[in-house]
Specification:
Pfam families: TetR_C_13 (PF16925), TetR_N (PF00440). 76% of the residues lie in helices and 0% in strands. It is mainly α. The protein has one domain: Tetracycline Repressor, domain 2, CATH 1.10.357. The protein is elongated, with a radius of gyration of 19 Å.
């Protein structure tokens, strides 16, 4: 199974703004998204931004207060690329078991796709921000909490429907799945071998099968 990140939503995103200012902001975000994801906040210069957009510094600062504000908007954009791709697969799954198994296969293809854009935005931002950039750190944490909440919801609903064993610690399972996936992303990126995700996701699938009723 191969899943390609749907770039059609770029067009929708770019057309969301109804004013010239909104369209310009969206343009800046879209044009700098890959740069920030590859170079990080500290590594991305204003020159990188102006070169990618073809706009002047005055135009950039006319739409964003500073580089950090651009970075925060870009992080949400990059995060949404991954989220929307996974969400599309979740919506196709008919049972809670199948939904949870989505995390055991779709990320192999998602990471291979976003790998061309610099890797997982959540992992990249979390590692770079750490304690040096609180706003970015909080954005990464919020994304992780949202991801965890989604998995916990699937497990709890699956247990109610009789698909998963009663008494399963949904939060522990959710954190474990996320940690495995992000660890696999890190390992694959460092070794430049995305085949390592196969081993990690096989473990995720095994965990899901263990809690099946």
């Amino acid at each position: 199974m191969f899943v390609k990140i749907n770039t059609n939503w770029y067009i929708c995103y770019m057309n969301v703004g109804t004013t010239k200012a909104e369209r310009t902001r969206n343009f800046i975000i879209e044009k700098t998204a890959e740069i920030f994801n590859r170079k990080g906040y500290a590594g991305t210069s204003m020159s990188d931004i102006t070169e990618a957009t073809g706009l002047t510094k005055g135009s950039i600062y006319g739409n964003f207060e500073n580089k950090e504000e651009v970075a925060l908007a870009v992080f949400e954009y990059n995060r949404s690329l991954v989220f929307n791709t996974v969400q599309a697969q979740l919506e196709k799954a008919e049972t809670y078991f199948e939904k949870l198994m989505v995390y055991g296969h779709v990320y192999r293809d998602v990471i291979a796709s976003v790998g061309n854009r610099g890797g997982c935005p959540i992992l990249n931002t979390a590692v770079e921000a750490d304690d040096t950039n609180v706003p970015l750190q909080l954005s990464a944490a919020k994304a992780l909490f949202s991801w965890k909440k989604s998995i916990v919801h699937i497990i709890e609903k699956g247990a109610e429907a009789g698909e998963f064993r009663q008494g399963v610690n949904a939060e522990q399972m959710a954190v474990s799945i996320i940690a495995l996936i992000e660890g696999g992303v890190m390992f694959s990126k460092v070794t430049n071998d995305y085949g390592n995700m196969d081993h990690v996701l096989a473990t995720v699938q095994a965990l899901v099968r263990v809690i099946k009723a």
